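User: I'm writing a tutorial on reading structure tokens. Could you give me a worked example: one chain, its sequence, then its tokens, then a sentence or two explaining what the tokens reveal?
Assistant: Sure. Here is the example chain.
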Amino acid sequence: MFEILSPGNRPGEMTKKFELYDRYGVEEYYLYDPDKVKLTGWRRREGKLQSIDQMDGWVSPRLKVRFDLTGPELQIFTESGVRFLTYSEMAQRAEREEQRAEREEQRAEREQQRAEREQQRAEQEQQRAERERQLKEQEQQRAERERQLKEQERQLKEQEQQRAEQEQQRAEQERKLKEQAEAKIKMLYLRLQELGIDPEQL
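And here are its predicted structure tokens:
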């Protein structure tokens, strides 16, 4: 179990958590305070969670990771020496993802507004064409008016089909962008969970 201390965590609350973990047999418990760059650890021995004296360089038997406190913040390494992202790096990445998602949302809104303006323009053009058709119908014989009406209806159907295809393509693009953003966020959550970090605690 690995937790990151936040300003909202009260001592009494953390004590209750520790007692709960101890009671239910948690093998290892680590508590990191990013403000103080302080890592505290406990390991189950003789049926109880007992404090680990030296955390710098400690290798977790359960998690198979090594903790390094020699730098300005906690660094965690795998058995092969690969460094995990630090707390601040994960926070920066999450912030960048959130900003990118916001930009995508704003872009989608602009596209929607543009589509609405295009629709309004098309409706205005359609209304103008209809007025011209009516004026022309008044000047021509009944047969000519009927022929022109059929031609206009055919053109209108083509325009509607083209507009429907454009709307479908736009919706598909927005869906793909949303899926990409959700996939990246899900990958970040999975990565945090691999580190034993509850994303809800960040």
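What the tokens reveal: DSSP finds three helices and six strands in the chain. The chain has a mean pLDDT of 88.
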